[in-house]
Write a structure and sequence with these properties.
By secondary structure, the protein is an alpha+beta fold. Helices cover 35% and strands 19% of the residues. Keywords: Signal.
Amino acid sequence: MTRTRVALLALSLCTVVVAAQAGDRTRIVNEGGIRDQWMLADGIKLAAPGYPAAYKERGDNVCVAVAYAIKPDGTTSDFAVVKEWSSAEDAGTTKGYFDAFAQAGAGALAQWKFKPRPEVTEPQRTVTVATMHFMGKQAMDIAALRSHCQVSDLAAAIQNAKHDATDRDHTRRDMERAARQGVSSGAMINDPGAAQGRPIR
C-alpha cells in the first residue's frame, strides 16, 4: 500500500471513529456482529459489487475490507477501506487501482439497508466492516481470497490507524519546523545541525 493511500486510509478511519465516538449510542462491531440488533430491511438483498470495468481485462483477484456505519434509520454511510489485497504485483503502484475496487465495494454497501430486530426499541448507530471480493480470471477459492482482507478486530484496526495518523502528523510538523528553522537561520536543510526537535521516523 502506498504512503498516500495509508494516509488517506487513516484519515477515512479517523472520520469513522470520530463519528463513532460522537454519540454515546454508537458501537463498533466486527463483521457479522450486527445480528444481535440489526436484520435486513424488508425486500432488501445484499448487493454485491461489480468488477470495475477499467480493470476487467486484467482480471486480477482482489479483495477490500470496507468499514461502514449503519445509521439508526438502517441506511449505510461513512465508507472507509480498512484492508486491501490483489493478486497483481503492481497493484499498489498502479494509480487508481484500489480506489476503483473500493468505490465498487462502497457502491454495493450503499444499497444495503437494515432494520432493527423486533426486540430492539432504540437502535444504535453501528460501525462494522464488510469483506468484498472480486474474482478475476484465475480460479481461486473464495474463502482464501476473502482471508487476505478479513479484519478480526475492527476496533483495534481503527485505533491503530488513528495512532499511525497521529505519528505521521507529528513527523510532518517536525519536518516543517526543521525546514522553517533552517531557512530562518540561513542553514541548509540537509545540514544535520539545521534540524532541531524529535528524530524523524
